[in-house]
Amino acid sequence: MAGESAAEERPPYTRVFSDPPPAIVKDGEFVLGCFNGPPGLINMLDVRKPYHYPVPKWFKDFRCKEWKAFQFGDKRWFFFTSLYEAKSLGLKQFTAWDRERGRVFEFRRFIPFGKFGITEKLDGEKTGYKDRRSALCYTFDLSGGTVVVKASSARTSERKAFSGEFTFSYNARQTAPSSVCLPLGLNRAMYSTKVLMPMQGWFEADGERFEFGAPDAMGIMDDHKGYYPYAMNYDWVTGFGQDSKGRRVGFNLTDNQVRDQETYNENVLWINSRVFPLPPIKVTRPNGHDKPWHIQDTEGLVDLEFKPERKNDLKMNLLIAETDYHGPFGSFEGTLRSPDGAEKVDAQGLSGMGEQKYLRA
Asked: How many whole angstroms separate alpha carbon 160 and alpha carbon 206?
């Protein structure tokens, strides 16, 4: 048929990963693109006129949203942790979900105007927050080949004590980072570095110790900064695990407020130490947040169903900020393909999470 012939003749989707720039802002302008590693300096505050008029550095800092997050685990455990700086509000979170027994160990704390020590350089950075009841720390030694997450919580009337330490391997033999700097309008942009990494570590809770290090133990790091609009919203899903061929696979798929997503997006597929670009996607939820989500593109490379299994919601409305966040944990079905069609991933059994996020801050 004519339609089928046209589809066959269409060239494969392409998006080039170039070498990262020394700095994400050069001469007051963002260096837009998709890169095969993080920039040396993520100097967001050096941008000139991110809005219509010149603004002081403190204002740029207040408007730049920043966060670091990890999704990781194995066939039994799923972990999610984040340090989020919305500037008017900070969030510290660590969640451990035991699928086998249906139990959760977690802490979540909102901190007005909270900051966690996020800097302009990812390599060598150490960020975290500690109070009387809980502690969370991320250490990034990219040049040394490791990223470490540590978390602990004291026993309270609402939760049992727990602690854990997880080390991710970051090296060219096992990982392929994907970094982007994408336009948001005017002279504003978002930056992100994401990478799928093998993981080993331990977690202690409720009198038991669990060790991680098997081939199915892995996780995805997300380092993120952006001059988002005052009303920020996006759809996002990510997943990881061993596929039916025993390969370490993962993906990141986002539909956000970035301009020209055919050229600029952060959608990727990881297979072992390779990373493949993926086209723009759309997420639909015909039966709401708690029922299956459908994630598809227009190139035939992404056809996924996300099945929420545990809620992870936040809803808050303050004078200075408002959030309506749905971030369930769950599993995936469907397929992912590389742009040239040479690789196909069966997503059956991959673990992960999705987000529908609205933030006014």
From this structure: 7
Q: Which residue has the tokens 């509000």?
A: 89
Q: Which tokens is 186 given?
A: 């005017």
For 55-65, what is the mean pLDDT?
93
Structural domain boundaries of the chain?
11-360
Burial class (CB in 10 A: 0-12, 13-18, 19+), 262: exposed
Query: Residue 114: CB partners within 8 Å, gap ≥ 6?
Result: 85, 89, 90, 91, 92, 129
Whether the model clears a pTM of 0.90, i.e. scores above it, the answer is yes
User: pLDDT per residue over 128-168, tens digit each?
Assistant: 999 999 999 999 999 999 999 999 999 887 788 999 999 99
How confident is the model over 206-226, as pLDDT tens digits? Answer: 999 999 998 999 999 999 999
Structure token pair of residue 51 = 């809005």
* Rg, C-alpha atoms of the chain: 20
User: Among residues 218, 118, 202, which one has the least CA distance to residue 163?
Assistant: 202
